[in-house]
Amino acid sequence: MDLIQIEASTARRKSKIKSQKSKVLWNKLFSAFQWSAYLRRAVLDYIVFVVYFSFSGWSRETPATSVSRRCSFMPRWTAQEKQAYRTEVIQRITAAMPSVMQEYTSINWAEELKGYRTDHEYYPDYIHAPIHGITDSYTNPQSCLGWDAAMDAIIPLSHNVSCQQLREKMAELIPEDAQIETVLELGAGTADGALALARRFPQATFRITDVSPYMLVISQHKFNKVGFSERAEFEQVDARHTGYPDNSFDLVTSSLLFHETPKEWTPKILKEMYRITKPGGWVLYADTYRGEYALSASFPEPWLDDFIHFNFEYEFAKAGFTELKYIPYAVGLWYMLGRKLGE
Question: Which pLDDT score, from 0 to 100, does residue 328 have?
């Protein structure tokens, strides 16, 4: 083979090698482009997923993702900020207490407490826990007297809305044309929730229930003051087993209850709420400590960790309620609205 032939053969081999390298390079680029497209699609799908579940009223997520999804946009407080917050709350409560004591000075406690259990053994075990850092707070009349003052301090400072706004917004979630004749409030506290509903539905009658007799006395005083006393009965009731007949109430409501009860109680209370709701009736609930706000809890809550990992859409649905709507409101506050199917 002469020199010319050798050079031609070498050139062909180089050309072939270059062509093969070029083909390999294009294959790599094409593969990279494909993966880039897949990645872009995956990112897009994730964004769509997040947006959908952020704005949908119903969720099929796990309890853990449920918490992160509902983050209320507020910075996490430092230890110093929490202490400053606690100090401000206590100062506001202290300043309000003279007028509170004057408001309730007319109550004849010995008379009003007749018919209620006040012995230590009656109360469920959980109520003796240091809720908000105060042991036996709901079996202590002084703590119960300060409840409204505490709410009037905590709700605005924590959630940027007034306690009245929280209750009125809650009542407005039930349509005015709904057929609401009978209402039960569980764990009513001082019955601000029931009062808001009583103003919205003037034809309705109410059962105001709580395990604390002191809360019930205060609730009755407030109903008397606004002229609603003929529309309400006040009963000392354990929310797990109320003793009411099946299908008793058009609306069963509660608020700020589940974050103060052990996790074992929640499914039992929800099942009881479902049992005593009339077919076609409503359930309405409100609470706090969702998302980032839960990380800024400034007062001790014995069951907070269990509470923030609870998937309440699932638990309400498991109890039997349908047409569920999870409704965020203000910072860290939320409502749950649902129905019991008609039979």
Answer: 93
